[in-house]
Specification:
The chain has a 4-stranded antiparallel sheet with strand order 1-2-3-4, with no helix packed on it. It has one domain: DNA Primase, Chain A (Alpha-Beta Complex), CATH 3.90.580.10. The protein starts with 5 loop residues before the first helix and ends with a helix. The protein contains 3 helices and 4 strands. With 74 residues, it is α+β, with helices and mostly antiparallel strands. The radius of gyration is 12 Å and the shape is globular. Helices cover 31% and strands 20% of the residues. Bound molecules: zinc ion. Zinc ion binds next to loops.
Amino acid sequence: MPTIDLQTLKSRIDLAELFSSRGLKLVRRGANLVTLCPFHSDSRPSLVINPNRQLWLCGAPHNQSYAEYSIMRS
Ligand SMILES: [Zn+2]
């Protein structure tokens, strides 16, 4: 079975597409996109996605690695 490292996997995923495919409405804010964070109870958009760098960051404290794992698995 071929193995693929996490970095390669991440480079092949379009984050904006991934989050919007989960039903999240992305709003452009400058170079970034913002949306409600699916990994905690979010009332105002605190998840920021940078589509150019394929990075995302949530302003609330929680385990980002676990969140990445769970969204890729779902
Ligand atoms: Zn969050």
